[in-house]
């Protein structure tokens, strides 16, 4: 099966030439994103989520850790309202790591720190995490946020249940229909995901490592930012030893944005697992930004993952 998948990938890739590399965002873009970061922090301090409404695309997708995916501007504002009703934010910061112009979209990655108290018991929490934002230019030239994904550097056992808001309209992305495989890039991603199913199920860190570019960045759950393939390789070798036994694993996608040299994949998974006497079914979601390499291979350039 692995050889068949690799053959499919090779056949699909050889006829696709690498496009242009990402280029430096304009000063206007950098200024707009700086304004948003400031507005984002201010809305939590003011408990006024409507301040972010002007930055959101109608079909914005929020991908929080411990929460199902939220789609649509109205639902996004409702989520922020519920969060701010449950917590009082004492300190908040958002610091960019990089901003890249991918052509039709702009990607920002960064870190955040949050100190807050829970309204019900006044318990204080201090958390750190990472985010990946995707922006698209509107008709008037301004940028609109189409995706905001974030996770945490540690597993906050006494907090994660309180970061779930069941009253907010949201969905398990893994239950959405797979994209229809009707183009070369979708075919290639389908083949890569089928191989990844097997790779993760078999706890094969060596093959998993081959998915990443040399200058990749991985924003994985419960771990600080991993920069560069060496750091990612070391993490994967440790991570595969911690994985449970997978009775079934389905890695899928419900949206693919082909930007030329870069491909943004909205991926998710459904995992049936067992670990000793425990077992269960879990779901998660990912943003994977793939890049076409000089040898025509498609590899992961930036990625972030969250559990539902």
Tell me what the structure shows.
This protein is α+β, with helices and mostly antiparallel strands and 308 residues long. Helix content is 27%, strand content 41%. It has helices at 2-13, 27-46, 73-86, 184-201, 205-209, 229-242; strands at 56-63, 70-71, 87-101, 105-118, 124-137, 143-152, 212-219, 226-227, 245-258, 262-275, 278-292, 298-307. The strands form 2 sheets. It has a 6-stranded mixed β-sheet with strand order 2-1-6-5-4-3, with helices on one face. A 6-stranded mixed β-sheet has the order 8-7-12-11-10-9, with helices on one face. A hairpin with a 3-residue loop joins strand 9 and strand 10 (262-275). Helix 1 (2-13) packs antiparallel against helix 4. The radius of gyration is 19 Å and the shape is globular. Mean pLDDT is 92; it is low at 1-17.
**Gyration radius, in Å:** 19 Å
Q: Overall 3D geometry?
A: globular
Tell me the span between the first and last alpha carbons.
30 Å
Largest sheet: 6 strands, mixed
What structural class do you assign from the helix and strand content?
alpha+beta
On the 0-100 scale, what is the average pLDDT?
A: 92
Q: How much helicity do the residues have?
A: 25-40%
What is the element string, with H for helices and E for strands? HHEEHEEEEHHEEHEEEE
If helices are DSSP runs of H or I spanning 4 or more residues, what is the number of helices?
Answer: 6
Biggest sheet strand line-up = 2-1-6-5-4-3
What is the β-strand count?
12
Beta-strand level of the residues, as a percent range? 35-45%
Poorly predicted runs are 1-17
